[in-house]
Amino acid sequence: MTDTRAAAIAETIDIHPSKPLLIVDADEVLFQFMAAFLNFIEEKGHAFIFRSYALAGNVLAYKDGPPLERQTVSDLVTEFFEKRTREIPADREAAPALNRLKLDGFQIVVLSNVPSIAIEDRRYALNSANIQFPLAPWSGPKGSAVAALAAKTQGKTIFVDDITSHHESVADLAPEVYRLHYVIHPKLRALLGKVKSANDQAENWFELEKFIRDHTSNN
């Protein structure tokens, strides 16, 4: 089922068969999800503690209070995407870097695990941030989707994401794809440390762009 779904999403994206392909995540790569989500839950009287790279278990009922139930956190996330997707600030260096790469021949796809209720809002946010590249809405591990997209070009493929499990999935199903790990929020980035499933890690879009260019310039 996943392979069929991946093939279907790849068919919706026009990819040149010889140019390099850059596949980027949205939340915490292009958009400051965590900062916006913190503002959202604090408006409701909740708090957050950076104990692990997850939302469930770290959203507190109130400052120094008990963690909210997993379902309650899931409901908050759904409400957040439904109401705030258009308003999540973009990483200010993402659009300039991506557009420079586009000018130099890179084709770019945004592969985002965005809830179905927020897909059109995500497209709106991307366009508003001058990140005007195809959006491939997805759910679950990204390995099969990346593999299907990468199969459409003989050029090198680069994958950028903040979630370690997605890097593991891509390493398993598309090991030839160069995997770059990036997290906008510094506290989240510090929680993870070294990500073994990624080929390299960056701390900003300047570093990401350099890694991308260096990789594609090496034969």
Structure description:
This protein is an alpha/beta fold. The protein has two domains: 2-32 and 88-217, HAD superfamily/HAD-like (Rossmann fold), CATH 3.40.50.1000; 34-87, no CATH class. Helix content is 43%, strand content 14%. The chain has helices at residues 2-11, 33-43, 70-84, 94-103, 119-128, 143-150, 164-173, 186-192, 205-217; strands spanning 21-24, 47-48, 59-60, 107-112, 135-137, 157-161, 178-182, 200-202. The strands form two sheets. A six-stranded parallel β-sheet has the order 5-4-1-6-7-8, sandwiched between helices. Strands 2-3 form a two-stranded antiparallel sheet. Helix 2 (33-43) crosses helix 3, helix 4 packs parallel to helix 9 and helix 6 crosses helix 7. The radius of gyration is 17 Å and the shape is globular. The mean pLDDT is 96.
Give the C-alpha Rg: 17 Å
The number of strands is: 8
Order of helices and strands: HEHEEHHEHEHEHEHEH
CATH topology-level name of the largest domain = Rossmann fold
CATH level 1 name of the largest domain: Alpha Beta
Number of helices: 9
CATH architecture of the largest domain: 3-Layer(aba) Sandwich
When the domains are counted, the total is 2
Morphology: globular
Let me know the average pLDDT: 96
Q: How would you write the strand order of the largest sheet? A: 5-4-1-6-7-8
Biggest sheet, in brief?
Answer: 6 strands, parallel
Specify the structural class: alpha/beta
- Kindly report the name of the CATH homologous superfamily of the largest domain: HAD superfamily/HAD-like
**Proportion in β-strands:** 5-15%
Q: What percent of residues adopt helix (DSSP H or I)? A: 40-55%
Low-confidence stretches: none
